[in-house]
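Design a sequence for this backbone.
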């Protein structure tokens, strides 16, 4: 059985078209491989060129972080210096005007001494510590002087009668002056004896006299 000549020609044309298409596809594939290879080379070159920039950027980022940490630490130290100056001003004014504020300043100084004692790496820490300790010593001297002045200003002799007034009623003398005694030689009566026993059973409350009035 023979093949029709037209059919053979059609098959030959189709085969030729397929070969041509395969060649074009192979050419396109080779071109794409070449282009991708070129991209890979260019990306490698770009990465090599960017490497120093990346290193510098990383160094800049680390330097920025270090600067931030240093600024925060410096802010804490400056805050302590400000507190020290405020406390010094209150200490130099003395406790007479505002005793409560003065005591707060003393507590501030103690806190500052603890802070700089634990951060002696700073060059000025020793100087600040010495200054704060001197201020503490001065503050104690001012408190002692204030106490002496209060004693001098408000202390006064107390009359003996006032001291007897501080005793509870059961312990106060019933008759005569407080300094007098019974020299008659008579034995105390049973009535006085029972009264003394009742007095001894009472709760004794002693009210001390106000030698120094409370400070306003």
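Sequence:
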């Amino acid at each position: 059985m023979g093949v029709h000549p037209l059919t053979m020609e059609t098959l030959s044309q189709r085969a030729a078209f397929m070969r041509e298409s395969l060649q074009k596809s192979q050419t396109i594939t080779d071109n794409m491989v070449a282009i991708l290879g070129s991209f890979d080379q260019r990306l490698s070159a770009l990465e090599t060129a960017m490497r120093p920039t990346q290193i510098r950027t990383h160094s800049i980022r680390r330097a920025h972080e270090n600067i931030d940490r240093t600024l925060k630490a410096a802010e804490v130290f400056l805050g302590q210096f400000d507190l020290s100056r405020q406390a010094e001003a209150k200490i130099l004014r003395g406790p007479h005007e505002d005793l409560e504020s003065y005591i707060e300043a003393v507590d501030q100084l103690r806190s500052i001494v603890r802070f700089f004692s634990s951060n002696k790496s700073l060059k000025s820490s020793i100087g600040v510590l010495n200054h704060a300790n001197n201020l503490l010593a001065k503050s104690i001297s001012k408190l002692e002087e204030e106490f002496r002045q209060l004693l001098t200003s408000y202390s006064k002799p107390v009359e003996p009668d006032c001291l007897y007034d501080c005793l509870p009623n059961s312990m106060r003398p019933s008759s005569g002056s407080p300094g007098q005694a019974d020299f008659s030689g008579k034995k105390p009566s049973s009535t006085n004896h029972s009264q003394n026993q009742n007095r001894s059973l009472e709760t004794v409350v002693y009210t001390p006299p106000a030698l120094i009035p409370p400070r306003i």
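The longest helix spans residues 5-93.
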